[in-house]
Every structure is written in C-alpha cells, then in structure tokens.
Amino acid sequence: MKEGRIVKVSGPLVVAEGMTDAKMFDVVRVSEKGLIGEIIELRGDRASIQVSEETSGLGPGEPVVSTGQTLSVELAPGMIESIYDGIQRPLTVIREMVGDYIVRGVDVPAIDRKKKWSFTSAAKPGDRVSPGDLLGVVEETVLVAHWIMVPPGIEGKIVELKEGEFTVEETIGRIETSEGVKDLCMLQRWPVRRPRPIKKKLPPVEPLVTGQRVIDAFFPVSKGGTACIPGPFGSGKTVIQHQLAKWADADIVVFVGCGERGNEMTDVLMEFPQLKDPRSGEPLMKRTVMVANTSNMPVAAREASVYTGITMGEYFRDMGYRVAVMADSTSRWAEAMREISGRLEEMPGEEGYPAYLGTRIAEFYERSGKVICLGSDQREGALTVIGSVSPPGGDLSDPVVQATLRVARVFWSLEDLLAFQRHFPAISWLNSYSLYLDDLEDYLKREVDERMPAKRRQAMKLLQQEAELQDVVKLIGVDALSSEDRLILITARSIREDFLHQIAFDEIDTYSSLKKQFKLLNIIMVMHEATKEALARGVSIDKLQGLRVWEEIARAKYIPEPQIAEIDQIKERIEAEIEELLETEG
Ligand code: ADP
C-alpha cells in the first residue's frame, strides 16, 4: 500500500496527502509510532483521519499507511470479563504490561492469542453449513457458553471438525466452499460500523424483566427494545445501572462507559468488577464485557466506543443470547462526534452538533432488536439497548436528548428532586413513558395475570389525579377536598410508597418477580375499592385512613418470593376490618 504523508495535525484529526490507494473508513497507521486512525473524509488523495490515540508531537511529513481494513472488532472466546478501550484494546492487559498510561501505538491483540480453549464440536463432517450455524462450543466462563458460529460469508460442506484444546487462531476444522477448502478458527472479525446480519426482526412482545417495579409494571422495556435514561448527579443512576446489570434477565451485559470524567469512570471500573451476579453468586463480570473511555482518553476512541460495544453485543446475540448493552453516557459520545465534525469544518447543526447527529443516534439504537439469528436452527436472540444521556444542566431540550427520544421507546425520567425526597428509584411516574405497553399486554395477561394491564392503568390514573389534587391542596388546603378526593390521595400515596419505592440494598426488596409485582399492586387496588365502597356507605375517611391493614400493605413488599401467596391473604383482613368498621359505625 502506498504511503501518505501528514500535512496537518489538529487535535485528534490528522490530514494526510498521497493516500492514493486508501478507501473511506480504512484504518490507518499514523507515523513511526503506528498510531491507530480511521479515514473519515477522502478528497482525491487527501485523507482526513480521526486518530484514536494522543496526537501530540506528530507533525507534517510523517508517514501514514492504510491497512486496507475498516475499524473492526475481534470476536472469539476471551471477550467476557475483559475491559476494553474504545477501539477494543484490552486495558487490563495493557496496564499489566505498561502501567496506568496507555503507551501510544501499543499493539496488544484484543483477544489472547496464547490461551487454549477446550472446543467441543456441535456439527460433523459432511454437514452442509451456512453463516450463523453452530460449529461447537467453548466454556468461556462458568456463566457463558461461547458458541463458535460459521462466520458471515462462508458456506459449504464441513470436511473436518476437530475437538480439543485450541487457541483462537488454530484451525478447528475445514469447510469446502465454492471457492475451495477454507480453514476455520474460533476468531472472527467484524467492522464495527456495520450491523451484523440477522435473519429476521421479531416484534417486541416479551418484557425485559428487571425486577424493578417502577420499570416492569409502569414503564417496561421489551427484550430487544430501547430505553433512555437521564441521570442528574446524585439521582441514583449508578444504582439503577447496577440493578439492571444484576437483575435484568439478560445473559450477557455489555457496559460501554463513555467519556465520563476520569474519576467517575474509575469508579465504574472499580465498582462493576465488584458486583455479584445475584442468581449464580459468581462475579457479574463472568457474563460482562466492558468498554471504557474516560474523558482524558482520545476523543476519536470515544466516538468509536459505542460501536465497538454494540458489535460485541450483536455477536453474543447471534449465539442466541439475550444481551443488554448499556451505554453511559451517549451525550459524551455525541460530544466526541461534535468535536471531530468541528475539526473537519463541517457545517454545524444545532448547538454545533453535526447535521447527521440524529441519524447516527438512530442508527445506533436501531441495532437493537429481538431477532431470529443467522443459522439454520431458527434460534432467537435479543439485544436491548439502554442509553443514558447527560445533557448540560439537565436540560432535556438538548439536541442529543431530543434525537435520542425520537428513537428510544422508553424514557425513565430520573429526577434529583425525587432523590432528595429519598424516593428511590427516583424515576418519575409522571414524566416517564414506555411505548411498549401495548406490545407487552398479551404477555402480561398470559404470563402474569389477566388483570395486570388494567391494574396498571388504574394505578397510573390515580397517580395523575393525585398530582392534580396536590395542586389544589397547595392553594386551598387538604380540608377543602371531598372525602373521595382524600381517598385518592391516600391510595396514591400507598402506590408510591408501598409499590414504586424500592430499596436496592434490601435483600428481599431489591428484586420483585412480575407475579409479586402484580400481587402488590393488586392488593393496593383492592384496598382502594373496598375503602371507596365503605366511604359510600357512610364510614368516615379518617377511620378508613386509620385502618391497621395499611401497615400490612406497606410490609407486603418484604414478603419473600416463595411466600408471595400471603399477599393475597391481606384481602381477607381488609374485608374483616372494614366489616368491623361498618358494624361499629352503623
Ligand atoms: P448517581 O450515580 O446518580 O450520582 P447514585 O446511584 O450513586 O447516584 O445514588 C446516590 C445515592 O442514592 C446512593 O448512594 C443511595 O444511597 C441512594 N439510592 C439510589 N438508588 C437507590 C435505591 N434504589 N434504593 C436505595 N437507595 C438508593
């Protein structure tokens, strides 16, 4: 490949001339140091290159060589438990080699080349296979069986398939294709900016169960869906992310930490590996891949990081897994895009962001989905994307937030005001939304309870009425309200405190199954109906408010899963206590 020469350096952007053989999006090596860059604009033989490593000290005249390949990730056993930077360099390995600072141009493969994995075949010679078909499996960690798939683009008859101990580059078998016999190994590559192919997208009709009541019952996300979460400082974003990573029924978690301040990211890097997978008792990292970019790492690597993360997520989805990709924060990613666009002197759009901001954000979220994977066994996989946004000053009219809300179908409005009031999770029941409610209704009716969607609507309506009544109370005081309205306030408060409020650190409260969620919500609604009727029959609102059974309702969420049938029994106590009241009053 013909060498080019640097003519200009501007921060992360390097301009080189003489790049006659290069193509758009080629990865290039810049200067003798071999810094990694990507061609993002090409005019004749003049290439603008976004360099993912620190460019200080570079100058005109230094060589630039195209590798002829686009920015790709390596996919093979060894990804789980890794912490990568935005261009998939293994941070933990690099740190062991060279200390805390990434030395420029270091060439460490993303996947360990020496480690041997025990490969068990799942196909046999003579089988005709096409992309996505399963060749065999490696136990990557105690929690993840890593399926080795026929890579996209390869099709034919297996002529040999071995078993035993192999490195990711050693030949595990051979396939006779129309272009001759090809060797197979466990390592695949995939260009990060291109979605991995699937057979078919499926409708989002199954919830991603998180065990967090405000999410599952009120603002659910589907498996393969998309959600957006803003996180004002101190509002509990970290706790929510940890809860989701721990409890959501996803097999694999890909966490992309994108450009938060250096020390915040260090927190994430320190904390995440400490988390335990509650179901297995193993470290959560045993089913997690992390991509981490602090704001002091090069901006171009940050721009690439969300693609690196989601491509790894797609790969595990292709195996038939339910994957959750969590990107925090996509605002920092968009800022990286803006900085590079500015250096290219592109025409700026809103707030200096490039005009293609919305397209890029949409393309990212559109890589989510519940799908039928490539391969002949019709297996299903799902990739759910949960992106956080951190607009300056918490301003939701910010272009990144707005572009995200146009594509993400769930919005969990984390609010610091609720956190100040110690209402956790601090997700507003008034400002959040989920556009999956209709899609998920059948599932909830079938798998949880026929009445679940109706109870949710009823509860939601009471909360909205509460908000309106509170405005009235602020003006003229609670005494001016009718007894019926006061009852609405009492029930709504119970919905907030006894249902939505959920303590992440309580052993039992930390997770509620959907069945338990239904029972908890149902008992509050049963109480509401019973007290409403008693009110109509002349019992005073103060007496109803003073019923002892409210305490039982409040404690119900601490009933362990195996005993949740007890929640239904509260109904009898409600009836008995109200009966008693009616007798004494009557
Ligand atoms: P952020 O990441 O938004 O700055 P954190 O996630 O660290 O905020 O949360 C701040 C504090 O709020 C936590 O230390 C914890 O005490 C409290 N908190 C947040 N969520 C919950 C929850 N679900 N249950 C109990 N406490 C919570």
Q: Can you describe what's shown?
A:
- By secondary structure, the protein is an alpha+beta fold.
- The protein folds into four domains: 4-70, Beta Barrel (Elongation Factor Tu (Ef-tu), domain 3), CATH 2.40.30.20; 112-186, RNA polymerase II/Efflux pump adaptor protein, barrel-sandwich hybrid domain (OB fold (Dihydrolipoamide Acetyltransferase, E2P), Beta Barrel), CATH 2.40.50; 200-433, 3-Layer(aba) Sandwich (Rossmann fold), CATH 3.40.50; 452-585, Bovine Mitochondrial F1-atpase, Atp Synthase Beta Chain, Chain D, domain 3 (Bovine Mitochondrial F1-ATPase, ATP Synthase Beta Chain, Chain D, domain3, Orthogonal Bundle).
- It is built from 16 helices and 26 strands.
- The strands form five sheets. Strands 8, 18, 19, 20, 21, 22, 23, 24, 25 and 26 form a ten-stranded mixed beta sheet that branches. Strands 1-2-5-4-3-6 form a six-stranded antiparallel β-barrel.
- It is globular, with a radius of gyration of 28 Å.
- Bound molecules: adenosine-5'-diphosphate.
- The site of adenosine-5'-diphosphate has 15 residues, from helix 3.
Q: Quick one: CATH class of the largest domain?
A: Alpha Beta
Largest sheet: 10 strands, mixed
**Class from secondary-structure proportions:** alpha+beta
Taken together, the total number of domains comes to 4
Spatial extent as radius of gyration: 28 Å
- CATH homologous superfamily heading of the largest domain: P-loop containing nucleotide triphosphate hydrolases
Bound molecule kinds, no repeats: adenosine-5'-diphosphate
Under CATH, the topology of the largest domain can be stated as Rossmann fold
Please, how many helices?
16
Please give the CATH architecture of the largest domain. Answer: 3-Layer(aba) Sandwich
Number of strands: 26
Mean pLDDT: 93
Unreliable segments of 5+ consecutive residues:
none
**Helicity level:** 25-40%
Q: Strand-residue fraction?
A: 15-25%
